[in-house]
Amino acid sequence: MTGINLIGGVTGDNGYGGQPTISSDGSRVGGTNINPATQLGEAAIYDVNTATWTNLGGIGNSLDLSTSSGWGISGDGQTLVGLGWAGEFTGHAIRWNQGTGMVDMGSTSPGQSSRANTTNFDGTVVGGWQDNDNGRQGAVWVNGVQELIFDGDGFGVSEVWDISDDGQWVTGITYGAQTYRYNTVTDTFEYIDPVAGDFFLPTSLGLGITADGSTIIGATRDFGPPIFGTGWIWQEGVGTVKLADYFTSIGVTYEEGFLFSAPSAISDDGLFIAGYGFSPTEGVVGWVVQIPTPASAMLLGLTGLVGLRRRRN
Asked: What is residue 176's predicted lDDT score, i.e. its pLDDT?
């Protein structure tokens, strides 16, 4: 299989919920697919080798067009996480595994929703959010047990968006210019400072993290279109810089005026970064940058808007 291949499936943009993600070896895609028997969206896995979708069902209910939705696949391709409708207007985080089938991970706030966004390589640590009095609070499920994430002052932070290979490190979204890094083993939390000039932007998104948790990529933005956000990279011991400035510093050449708006994925070793941005000549495009050594890098190319958020873990 080469080039761009349409595989079907649906996304939140279609009103079904979910997002496409891909296993580490590229053999399985997680997401949402329409069940032909019910015409409702279900969490599903696409097998690249057989070019077939397998629908995974739900947890007993449906709402509008959806029974369940897939939001993240594990690196080994054996676990899919997302949201299933548990009752009228109430969704629960779900975890489907090749061996155990569909599991309702529940809600720790009665009558309120939860959702799983991502998982580590073997599916044992899951990240997402839990609705409660703190709003949409970040949460991790370690071997199925939920832990809510609080900052050093005891305030709840927002949803988890990515997890390192071993499940030790997570990053996510905050409504403020700082995002965060949280250690699920030591239960330690730290804010990540924004780049200069972004202190007053209302949203910061930690969108990707390396295997050792030492590098995080993401974006800050206002309430306008995400394509006009500011992509950034944070490195332990170095701090946060704009992604464009980082690429320039290591020798990446790119079109003048190009906006690296939203880096959405980074490889375990930090040598590949991908996302979408805005080209003055091409409009909205996807991009991939390879960084083979600290002194040498290249922009691999621009494509149509990236449709897959690659699961490195």
From this structure: 73
Instruction: Examine the domain organization and report whether 65 and 172 are in the same domain.
Output: no
| Residue with more model confidence, 222 or 118 | 118
Instruction: Let me know: does 27 contact 33? Beta carbons within 8 Å.
Output: no
| Residue 16 DSSP label | S
Helix (H, G, I), strand (E, B) or coil at 127: strand
Please state the φ and ψ torsions of residue 228, each to the nearest 5 degrees: -105, 20
pLDDT at residue number 124: 97
Check whether 81 has a pLDDT greater than 80: yes
| Maximum Cα–Cα distance across the chain | 55
Cα 57 to chain centroid distance, Å, stands at 22
Do residue 42 and residue 157 come from a single domain?
A: no
d(Cα 223, Cα 228) in Å, to the nearest integer? Answer: 10
- Distant-in-sequence, close-in-space partners of 154: CB < 8 Å, separation ≥ 6: none
Query: Within this chain, do residues 40 and 173 fall inside the same structural domain, yes or no?
Result: no
In a domain, 138, yes or no: no
**Rounded Cα gap, residues 134 and 116, in angstroms:** 17
Q: What is the DSSP letter of 274?
A: E
State the residue for tokens 């991009």: 287
pTM of the model: 0.90
Domain limits for position 211:
149-313
Per-residue pLDDT band for 14 (boundaries 50, 70, 90) equals: confident
Q: Is the pLDDT of residue 307 over 50?
A: no
Name the 3-class secondary structure at 201. Answer: coil
Which tokens sit at 35? 């069940």
Asked if residue 110 and residue 192 are part of one domain, the reply reads no
pLDDT band at 194 (very low <50, low <70, confident <90, very high): confident
- Which among 295, 300, 217 has a CA at the least distance from the CA of 250? 295
Residue 247: phi and psi, rounded to 5, are -60, -45
Contact 83/72 with Cβ under 8 angstroms?
Answer: no
The token pair that represents 108 in the structure block:
């720790």
